[in-house]
């Protein structure tokens, strides 16, 4: 393996699970890169009274910070597989954590360390690329949602007018069929804003 390939693999690992000082930098870089689709996703949640929200792959906690600023939110949990990135999220949301309206957890979407039917909203932004999309993973999301709760999964499916067939096939042939199998209803793909020439979409479903 040449140096260029090793560097690329190292950077890819940092985006999947940021580590150390460089991981903190990557986390803040992702906040800047993904701000537009993050705010779009929060708007899609249509937050009402006493919402309890779970973010899967919370990163540096920017989305959590914005959600916690809204009056209809009761409690927000951020879940991530990276200890380094959770440090950034903890700093960004330290007041809410101290007041008991926010919590951060180290863990994976395939084994969410939380009780059944806790959340009215579950969402994720740019983390599905790193999931094992299996019945167990989708059932975990379904399990932690309250009846009539919703899931919103935001990702990119193309760039510069070109659709990435691999991502699109994953949505249409794997993710959505598994969501239907688990019992989600009103499933749809919503088109979002272009961000840095990437095409943003969100997969929405209701329990």
From TrEMBL:
Keyword vocabulary terms for this entry: Methyltransferase, Transferase
Gene3D superfamilies in UniProt: Vaccinia Virus protein VP39 (3.40.50.150)
Name of protein: Methyltransferase family protein
Molecular-function annotations in GO: S-adenosylmethionine-dependent methyltransferase activity
Classification lineage: Bacteria, Bacillati, Bacillota, Bacilli, Bacillales
One GO BP annotation of this record: methylation
The Methyltransferase type domain, residue ranges: 54-152
């Amino acid at each position: 393996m040449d140096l260029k390939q090793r560097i690329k693999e190292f950077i890819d690992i940092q985006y999947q699970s940021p580590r150390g000082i460089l991981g903190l930098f990557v986390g803040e870089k992702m906040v800047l890169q993904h701000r537009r689709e993050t705010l779009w996703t929060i708007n899609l949640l249509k937050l009402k009274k006493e919402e309890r929200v779970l973010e899967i792959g919370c990163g540096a906690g920017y989305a959590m910070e914005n959600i916690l600023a809204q009056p209809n939110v009761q409690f927000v949990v951020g879940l991530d597989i990276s200890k380094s990135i959770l440090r950034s999220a903890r700093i960004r949301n330290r007041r809410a954590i101290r007041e008991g309206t926010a919590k951060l957890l180290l863990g994976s979407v395939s084994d969410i360390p939380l009780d059944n039917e806790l959340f009215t909203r579950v969402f994720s932004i740019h983390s599905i690329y790193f999931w094992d999309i299996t019945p167990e993973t989708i059932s975990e999301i379904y399990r932690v949602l309250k009846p009539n709760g919703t899931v919103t999964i935001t990702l990119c499916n193309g760039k510069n007018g070109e659709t990435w067939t691999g991502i699109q096939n994953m949505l249409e042939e794997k993710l959505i069929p598994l969501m239907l199998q688990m019992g989600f209803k009103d499933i749809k793909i919503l088109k979002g804003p272009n961000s840095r020439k990437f095409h943003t979409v969100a997969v929405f479903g209701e329990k």
